[in-house]
Amino acid sequence: MYYFDNASTTFPKVEAVYGKTMEIYKNLGVNFSRNRSNKSEKANDIKKKLIQNLKMIFSSNGKIILNSSATSSLNEILRGVDYKKIKNVYISPFEHNAVYRTIKDLQDIYKFNLNILKFNDFDLDKEHMELQFMSQNPDLIISTHASNVFGNILDVKSIFKEGKRYNSITVLDGAQTSGLLDFSKISNLCDFIVFAGHKTLYGPSGIGGYLYNNKEIILKPLLYGGTGIKSEDIHMPEDIPQRYEAGSPNLVGMIGLKLSTDWILEIGIKNIRKKEKENYKRLVELLEEYDYDISFEIAKKNVGVLSIIANDYTPQELGDILEGYDIYTRTGLHCSPIAHKHMKTNKNGTIRFSVSYFTRDEDFKKLEEVLKEIL
Fold this sequence. Notes:
39% helix, seven-stranded mixed β-sheet, Aspartate Aminotransferase, domain 2, alpha/beta, Aspartate Aminotransferase, domain 1, 375 residues, 15% strand
């Protein structure tokens, strides 16, 4: 298989995620939050180390909440804030449906004003934003860090810094950037940072979570149930993270994510970013050879994601042809219809190529060979 769908989930993963996860789970596969056996203590140490790793990755000492996915995290955060205090909500035009569908559903319930920040293609219109915030003070701002469709990195520092002048709640969707970009200059501006284990953190599917960076904001939990503490209380405990981690923990996912984040910190985020940039540059140079038949736009700052449109094929047709050669991309709207509407690619969507640290030389050679044949 020749894989260019890393924005969906990175593949392959770090080798230790495959080799060691089940080995460790076989020895320590107990519910560490429910008893104090020696195995439970060792399993709990894995969670503690994972949390330390994530805090280092996000350059923050905030609380880490672990759950099943970035989607679960965004639902818990957005459904958990107090809308009696929220009149004006802002989002970027590049949001994933995990944000957009959730916030539209909440708008139907709470009737707040929903505004989409103005971007000129990939560039934030700062002057327009400042005037908009003055006119309708922001109470809640949600922004993706990088588009899962076009790969552009958004100027969240400017957005959140301006928003904090009005004491806005700020939520960053870091699904495409966690473990890949430096968060040190923006982490303090984010009340919440959402992450997905199976993307740029190179961990398994089924685990994600969020950084809870502002203890002044008390979210209503999304899930209710057993927490292993204060069972006599009919209400969820105030303790964090237990308040937001009802039910038995996903130990397999935690082990895998701990191993992958160990690797990230060992290799270094800068080195991972450098390698992905090299792979992205190679992808762009390869596709530019066919600019007579395909078109695409590149932002000034981006992650390893690139969407194209072909003159002679719909994205779905080209994707099907490539699959016939065992080359895998993603076609369509990529769960982000407002991004396509903004970039005027919403008629048929795009075919998306996305690389990772582990994209191989043979992946590029196979893609080049097939494109020469079909374009």
